[in-house]
Write a structure and sequence with these properties.
This protein has helices spanning about 25-35, 50-60, 80-95, 115-125, 140-150, 165-175, 195-205, 210-215, 230-235, 245-255, and strands at about 5, 10, 15, 40, 70-75, 100-105, 130-135, 155-160, 180-185, 220-225. It has about 270 residues and is an alpha/beta fold. The strands form two sheets. An eight-stranded parallel sheet has the order 3-4-5-6-7-8-9-10. It has a two-stranded antiparallel ribbon with strand order 1-2. Strand 8, helix 6 (about 165-175) and strand 9 (about 180-185) form a beta-alpha-beta unit.
Length: about 270
Amino acid sequence: MQLVEAKGARIPLVGLGTWELRGRTCGRIVEQALRLGYRHIDTAEMYDNERDVGEALRASVVGRDEVFLTTKIWPSHFAPHELERAAKGSLARLRLSEVDLLLLHWPNPRIPLSETLGALCKVKQMGLARHIGVSNFTVSLIAEAVRLASEPLVCNQIEMHPFLDQSKVTAACRAHGMAIVAYSPIARGGAKNDALLARIGAAHGKSAAQVCLRWLVQQGIVVIPRTSRIEHLEANCAIFGFELSAAEMAEIGSLAHRGGRIVDYAYSGSPKWD
């Protein structure tokens, strides 16, 4: 599996998102993903499936040191003592001594970012997370977080697909040496209904969804599509045997439009998006 490197973190370009996957379904999909060669699994405190993910990791023949595991802390736990407690709670549910990447799930304007970042950095220093980062942070929040953090912030996990212009926040991440991790990378299935993506896919013998994912990874952006279907698991990682031309990349980039955002929620209201 190809990797993106950022501030010491080596993140597999394709991972499995597990939002809405729970119980036996979650365990089966995670185990199958690892069997197919996935080495990046993304979960979160809020997903209520960390136990399921942890059990699947232990059931897999793949060694723990081969899997890059991300989890995320919910904004209601951003006060310093709460954040540390939440991180330990995630590890207890996963039955792990550390995660590879621990993220702040959404911004929380009710708690000073300096306090939250201080606690996040402390959790890393305690050895509970190998790397730390943020999610759903805007350009201004990224700059503030980098300034406040005493430890490297390795990524910003954001909604990203061709129908949403994320050029400003992408540029900000790159300016600070942060990796970009794209959630909802096929617009929650919306990619399959797009005629342009379907046409480009037909030219390469690929689906519209695979073109969507290829467009992102070809820019060095990590993708974590979520699926509950085995056949989609296979298709989502079969995106390295072809390359989009510069003209095709530009065509796909032109699909962005106002109103393309799908996920627009935060603990106390979404931030002012760039």
